[in-house]
Hints:
The chain is mainly α. It folds into 2 domains: 6-120, no CATH class; 127-255, no CATH class. It has helices at 6-12, 16-27, 30-35, 40-54, 62-76, 82-88, 92-102, 106-120, 136-147, 153-160, 163-173, 177-189, 197-205, 211-215, 219-232, 237-243, 246-255.
Amino acid sequence: MKIDWNQVKKETLWHYEDLIEKILNVLDYGFVQKHYNHSMDEAAAFSERIRQGYWQNGREVTFIGEITEHFRTLSGLGIRNYQDLIQQIDTRAKCEVFLQKTGFHFEALIQMLNYLFRWVLPFKCPVKELVEADDNDSTAYLETLKKHKIRSNLDVLENCHTRESRASLARETGIAETFILDLAHRADISRLAYVRGKTVKHLCRGGYNTLEKIANADLRQMEIDMTAYYTTIGKSFSDFKAVIPLDWMIGGAKVLPRVIEE
């Protein structure tokens, strides 16, 4: 068995060890364990939901079918969930043993890890990317949150996804609970695949400041609303939707697990 480890960076933009570390870092969050750590049968079913959501089953996405089959194969091999899989391959040596023992193909494994990292698990980003840079109150609040080890969107979701946790954080920090809830919703939106802070802020300014609003949006009305917003800042909405189409975001929002408790 010959493994081209350089292929990992070509496919995923990360070296193997870095990719594994990033996936394990996300899986370490309690809310991710609860809502995302699928069994392999659940993973196969969720990959089909990803197809139906982001692509509405109307676009050719052959790799999703391949991914689904990979998960079914891993289920037959006795892999319990994502974390079980990653722990069995978290070094190059262990990966080689796994491949030799199971007969699973290296290329299929990397394709699946890339999919898991980019399409299934929430992507970690600095919390400062989610707030308005010119808002003095927000800047002060972020400094306070750092002292409580809340530095990323995933830290926000871990610590602010329930009403009780938000109220507790507000009492401990003196931060307005309305700000904490708004920040939690922004972090929630950032769970959409390929949606980062700049896009989150545009969506919120355009009136779509919760994942539920996006999931329940009428496409035509959302286009009208976002066009109106972009007009107010002297920019073209066509540039925005060319990067991330609205129907794609609406579909993705429909299939994401619900994390925020009101």
